[in-house]
């Protein structure tokens, strides 16, 4: 907030550039039959996880267009990976840069958009899917220091 109580973008111009890294995770809960369709690439829309991976990576690079007052960053690295379970797909996004502000929002955005893409590509066979537990798991760098979420 500025001196008049108005929202403003945080001024990072005086900060030094440093390595920033973040990991976010979520789950897409679904029927076992839907997981089987994803695993066998049998859905009409194509390779669900390949499309979701690209969507997540693209989303990480466009976070500042989606989240008000979020700084645009030059993303140095972004990856989205999946673990297929019996009744879910776990999504993990990792984002890294060398800049003046962190990439937590970029990792969370990548993770959520990848999950939404899975939902979109599978909704014709499973409208009851649930996206859950979107969480920051790790961050490195910045004034507030490193963070590692302990399993709970």
Walkthrough of the structure:
The protein is α+β, with helices and mostly antiparallel strands and 152 residues long. It has one domain (18-141): Molybdopterin cofactor biosynthesis C (MoaC) domain (Alpha-Beta Plaits), CATH 3.30.70. Helix content is 30%, strand content 30%. The protein is built from 4 helices and 5 strands; from the N terminus they run E-H-H-H-E-E-H-E-E. It has helices at residues 32-39, 48-61, 63-66, 104-122; strands at residues 18-29, 77-84, 88-99, 130-140, 147-148. A 5-stranded antiparallel beta sheet has the order 2-3-1-4-5, with helices on one face. A hairpin with a 3-residue loop joins strand 2 and strand 3 (88-99). The chain starts with 17 loop residues before the first strand and ends with a strand. The model has no long low-confidence stretch (mean pLDDT 94).
Short description:
The chain is α+β, with helices and mostly antiparallel strands.
Helical residue percent band: 25-40%
Instruction: Give the CATH H-level superfamily.
Output: Molybdopterin cofactor biosynthesis C (MoaC) domain
Count of DSSP H/I helices: 4
In CATH terms, what is the fold-level topology?
A: Alpha-Beta Plaits
What would the average pLDDT be, to the nearest integer? 94
Task: Name the poorly predicted regions.
Answer: none
Strand order of the largest sheet: 2-3-1-4-5
**Proportion of beta-strand residues:** 25-35%
Largest sheet: 5 strands, antiparallel
* Radius of gyration, taken over Cα atoms and rounded to an integer in Å: 17 Å
- What is the tally of beta strands? 5
CATH C-level category: Alpha Beta
